[in-house]
Amino acid sequence: MPNDPQAQKVVLAVDPGRDKCGLAVVLPHGIMFRAVIPTSEVGLTCRYLLAQHAGAQVIVGGATCSRQVVAAIVHDNEVGEPVVVAEENSTLEARRRYFEDNPPKWWQRLVPQGMRVPPRAVDDYAAVVLAERYLAGEQV
Hints:
140 residues; 34% helix; single chain
């Protein structure tokens, strides 16, 4: 649908944290980019991503360190104030999504899903969850 406004909407989502942040660039029909970066680099990384995806809507999770992350994004970029969104259960959803993409192997499959711990940070998956919720209109 070329005239569908949602088809062209790009979201740059940030899951903020004290030491690290998850970033994701998401369209209604897929994930273009995701990464976990040090919080100290969030402003400059967003600048790079916004240069690649002009007109992207920036959203930031409203929990830990969100004020500092919003300030860094605004300071390092010529964008308006990012939209702050709720993060309820985004980490749990991120863990579930991580294991969908990286199924446990061998004996690890015997561990109940709720007790599995990913071997790396899943903040990038949390950013994807925030972006998808935003695109679905679930939170503002």
